[in-house]
Amino acid sequence: MSRRYDDVTRDLQRIYDSVVDQRARSEVEPWKQAERTAYLELLRREGRQTLLEIGAGTGVHGRFFADAGLEVVCTDLSSAMVEHCRAQGLVAYRQDLLHLDLDRAFDAAFAMNCLLHVPREDFPAALSAIRSTLAAGGVFYLGQYGGIVRDGIWEGDSYVPPRYFSFLTDTELLDFARERFEVESFNAVDVGFDDGTYFQSLVLRA
Fold this sequence. Notes:
206 residues, alpha/beta, Rossmann fold, two-stranded antiparallel ribbon, 7 helices, 34% helix
C-alpha cells in the first residue's frame, strides 16, 4: 500500500461523507441500468446467490441486486455511505479496497466506478484483495471510466475539493486483470463523453 493510497482514501472518505444526500438524489443512468441488468442475468444463469458490492456508495446497486433475490453485502470507504446503505435495509460495512475482511467467500462481486480512485501502483493489490473474497470460479463485474491516462486530482471535478482519479487505457486495465483473473468479456461503452474517455466494462472469473 502506497503513501499516496493513504492520502487518497483519507480525502475520499471526507468528500463522500459530505455528499450522501446529493448522490442519493441522483438517477441511475440508463446505460448503468443496462450494465447491471446484464450482470444479474449472468448471475441468474449460473445460480449465484451471494454478492459483494465494493464501493457501494448509497447502495442503489446493492438494493437492485437484493431486490432481485441475491444475498448482498455492501462495503464502502465512507461511514456516512455505509449508514445510508443500512438505512436501505442492506448489510454494509466500512472497509477500503485493500483491507476487505469479511470472513467469508462470495459467489460474485460488483464494483462500478470505484477502482478508478485507486492509484496505479496499488491497482494490482486491489484486484488481489477482491479476488480473495470470491469462491473458486466466482465472477467479478468491474466497470469504470477510462480509455485514456489520467493520474491525479481532476480539477474539472464538480466536487469540492476535487477528487483523485486514475484512468487506465484498455491495455493497462486488461493486463492488470489478466494477472489475477480470467477475462470473460470486455466492452467499451460510449456514455457520451467528449474528452476521449468511455466506460470500461469487464466480467472476470476467479
